[in-house]
Write a structure and sequence with these properties.
Keywords: DNA condensation, DNA-binding. This protein has 90 residues and is of the alpha+beta class. The chain is built from 3 helices and 5 strands.
Length: 90
């Protein structure tokens, strides 16, 4: 499901316009992104948690040349599903 489809589904369920639902989705994603940039987790009880994960520096390989290169340490965003979401999928 893409953002327009999600906005349409939210609009149908809540009575909002599609434009308003799209604004709500954008505000949500902006807030999750802002929290992640500050290093904070975002938890939605029953749905899941967006958190910051650290990746250690490691050696990699250029697939075209076979040359070994150093991949620097980095941070990424992870998601851990909550119990209600896991139960819904099962």
């Amino acid at each position: 499901m893409r953002k327009p489809e999600l906005a349409a589904a939210i609009a149908d369920r809540t009575g909002l316009t599609r434009e308003k639902a799209s604004e709500v989705i954008t505000a949500f994603t902006d807030q999750v992104s802002a929290a992640a940039s500050r290093g904070e987790d975002t938890t939605l009880i029953g749905f899941g948690t967006f958190n910051i994960r650290s990746r250690e520096a490691r050696d990699g390989r250029n697939p075209q040349t076979g040359e070994t290169l150093r991949i620097p340490a980095s941070k990424t965003v992870g998601f851990k599903a909550g119990k209600a979401l896991k139960d819904e999928i099962r």
